[in-house]
Amino acid sequence: MIDAAQEKVVGEIPLEGKPEFAVADGRGSVFDNLEDKGQILKINAGTLAIAARWNLPQGSGPSGLAIDAAHHRLFIGCRNQP
Q: Which of 35, 53, 71, 80 is most buried (most C-beta within 10 Å)?
């Protein structure tokens, strides 16, 4: 994690996979997709801990992520592999 105001690294979070995109909800959480694991992570930006981990259907290949923070919805772009 990087503190943009201070322009320095403030911590590292072991994600156990290959992160693709990250989006912040403006309420202290960051969401990231792990392409190789087919998972979405919810990260607590204050504690630098993974708060939740959701599995996507096998073969989903999440490769894009966007958020509608006003309505609390994540949009996940996937590359399904046969």
A: 35
Q: CA 60 to CA 82: how far, in whole Å?
A: 10
Q: What angle do CA 33, 49, 73 make, to 5 degrees?
A: 45
3-state helix/strand/coil string of the chain: CEECCCCEECCCCCCCCCEEEEEECCCCEEEEEECCCCEEEEEECCCCEEEEEEECCCCCCEEEEEEECCCCEEEEEECCCC
Phi/psi at 2 (5° precision): -120, 135
What residues form DSSP beta bridges with 53? Answer: 41
Encode the chain (82 residues) as per-residue pLDDT tens digits.
Answer: 888 899 999 899 999 899 988 999 999 999 999 989 999 999 999 999 999 999 998 878 888 899 999 999 999 988 876 5
